[in-house]
Structures are given as C-alpha cells and as structure tokens.
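Design a sequence for this backbone.
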C-alpha cells in the first residue's frame, strides 16, 4: 500500500497534512504519537471510513495493489471489504450469536452461503483469530457473553471472514487487561503471515513488540494539522531515530 501527499480534512479544518509512506505487505506497521496528532484519522482514511463523517474528505492518493482507492468511481464499500478494521473497544453485535457475529460482514455484503459453507467460514475465521477452541461448543451464545479479550478476537474473526488484504487496528488493546493484551499481540504476530496490518497504539512497548516498522506522528500545536515525522524499521525508531522529536517521544521526554 502506497500513500502519497495525503491531506485529511474535516470541513475547512485540515487534520492531517502531507503524509507519504509505503506499507509493506504481510508486515505490521505501528503508528505512534501523542493524542490528537491524527493517527486514528489517518488510519480511517486508509479504508475510507473517514468520509462517513459529514464534511470529511481527503486530498492525495492511497494506492492498494495498483488501484487508487480515492479515484473517481471507486466504491468505498468495496474498499472496506479489502481493508478491514478492528476498533478500540470490542464491538460484537449484542443481539447476534457468536456464529452470526462472524458472518455479519458477509451478510451485510449480501453474500449468501449454504450452511456447510457458512460453517467453514465461521470455523476458519475463529481459528484464524485463535478463538475456536474457546467457543466451539457455544457458537449459539451471544457474542456479548464473551470476555473483553474474547470479544475483541471475535471482532477480528468477523473482519478476517471477508478475507481482506489489509487489517487496520485502532488501539485494539486499550480496553483490555494485560493477559488479553498479550493474547491479541500473539495473534497479530500470527495474522501478519496472511495479512498486511496497520496498528495505532499509545503503548510504546506494544509497538516495539509487535511491529516491523513504526511511524511517529506529531502535531505542532492546537489547531495545527498532524504530520508524519518519520517512519522506519521499529528497531531504528526506538534506538536511533532520525528526528529529535521522535527520540524525545519514545524515551518519555516528550513535552
């Protein structure tokens, strides 16, 4: 995925300015930076979730497998099939069973499956999210009956059921306890064998543990747009970054 000169707006306000980067396939890219610097806004722009907000739009290019996702005539719904998203707080559909939660994205996209095919999708997706063994005997129970960490893995299973090319994660562990966080981090390491992953995190240790590359976003002040200061191999960002602002942030001297 290649992003070039991306500016992101909410009406007249420019929230993010001039982001250019390449996201390597089948790798984990972490986005770090202080609150309000545009990390999550940028993440949502990658699959056109940003523009569901009235007045929001972008200038620039996001290219996936040679296709500009913001080109005229490109259907944002199709973009979101290729680029799945997992949000900060687990959000299984509370009235749906675990089984139906996994299939929800496919149902919304009008994909009709025979029972055997649906069973295969549910099992393979739950296995992919490392949840199958924990829920195989209670697929008819509500998704909301699971623990927080299990619910987040259920949401990951729902996302990968559509077989996206890219998986976006917006602080997926921020609402979880340390044990559940570790389970999600282990899962991310497994998932990158099949998916390109971009994760926003405020946890420096998490970024250093799970990502191959890390990008640091920053903001000059209130009312200013967020900018990508630098992006490099994670080991470089945390040991020898090019910019002083990055060094200050990752060592806790920021601000």
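Sequence:
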């Amino acid at each position: 995925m290649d992003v070039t000169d991306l500016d992101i707006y909410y009406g007249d306000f420019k929230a993010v300015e001039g982001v250019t980067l390449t996201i390597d396939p089948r790798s984990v890219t972490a986005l770090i930076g202080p609150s309000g610097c545009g990390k999550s806004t940028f993440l949502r722009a990658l699959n056109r979730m940003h523009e569901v907000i009235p007045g929001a739009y972008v200038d620039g290019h996001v290219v996936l497998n040679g296709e500009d996702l913001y080109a005229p005539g490109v259907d944002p719904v199709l973009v979101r099939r290729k680029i799945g998203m997992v949000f900060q707080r687990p959000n299984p559909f509370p009235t749906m069973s675990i089984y139906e939660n996994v299939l929800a994205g496919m149902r919304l996209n009008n994909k009709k499956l025979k029972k055997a095919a649906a069973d295969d999708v549910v099992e393979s997706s739950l296995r992919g999210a490392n949840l199958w063994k924990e829920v195989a005997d209670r697929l008819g129970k509500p998704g909301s009956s699971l623990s927080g960490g299990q619910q987040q893995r259920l949401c990951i299973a729902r996302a990968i059921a559509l077989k996206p090319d890219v998986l976006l994660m917006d602080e997926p562990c921020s609402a979880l306890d340390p044990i559940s966080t570790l389970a999600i981090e282990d899962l991310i390491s497994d998932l990158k064998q099949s998916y390109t992953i971009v994760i926003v995190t405020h946890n420096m240790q998490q970024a250093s543990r799970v990502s191959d590359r890390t990008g640091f976003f920053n903001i000059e002040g209130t009312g200013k747009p967020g900018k990508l200061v630098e992006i490099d191999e994670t080991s470089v960002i945390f040991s020898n970054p090019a910019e002083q602002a990055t060094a200050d942030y990752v060592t806790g001297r920021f601000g």
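Residues 2-250 form a domain with the Rossmann fold fold (CATH 3.40.50.300).
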